[in-house]
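Work Package 4 report. The design task specified in the project plan requires that, given a folded chain encoded as structure tokens, an amino acid be chosen for each position. We show below one input record used in the internal validation round.
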């Protein structure tokens, strides 16, 4: 790994570049940061389609990210509402987001699984 500012080789455990003091790319990065970085990259790489508003979809994903950062305080109702609006705006990006979150080690993973379970079963499943 190299410093993105000056190009110096960074030791794996470095939090800052020893040459210029720039924070190392992975310093302080959480599992959640990596999860959402991957999701944004996949959305970015998704081919444009007629009627697909990527910017609007990314705005919704950012809302989910903000809520996900609350850890144990996550409000599942909010996450579910955002996932539903994502399903409405951009089903493909909903799939990218859910797949990405399912790979996360954060609390959001359990929330997503619970939402997926109740959504599949529906209100009449008993
Ligand atoms: Zn540097």
């Amino acid at each position: 790994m190299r410093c993105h500012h000056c190009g110096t080789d960074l030791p794996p455990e470095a939090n800052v570049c020893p040459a210029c003091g720039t924070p190392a790319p992975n310093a302080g990065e959480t599992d959640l940061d990596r999860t959402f970085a991957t999701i944004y990259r996949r959305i970015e790489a998704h081919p444009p389609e007629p009627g697909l508003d990527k910017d609007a979809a990314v705005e919704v994903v950012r809302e989910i990210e903000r809520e996900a950062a609350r850890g144990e305080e996550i409000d599942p109702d909010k996450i579910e509402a955002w996932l539903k609006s994502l399903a409405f705006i951009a089903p493909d990006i909903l799939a990218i987001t859910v797949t990405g979150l399912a790979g996360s080690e954060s609390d959001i993973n359990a929330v997503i699984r619970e939402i997926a379970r109740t959504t599949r079963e529906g209100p009449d499943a008993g």
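The CA atoms of residues 38 and 100 lie 7 Å apart. Validation will be extended to a larger panel in the next phase.
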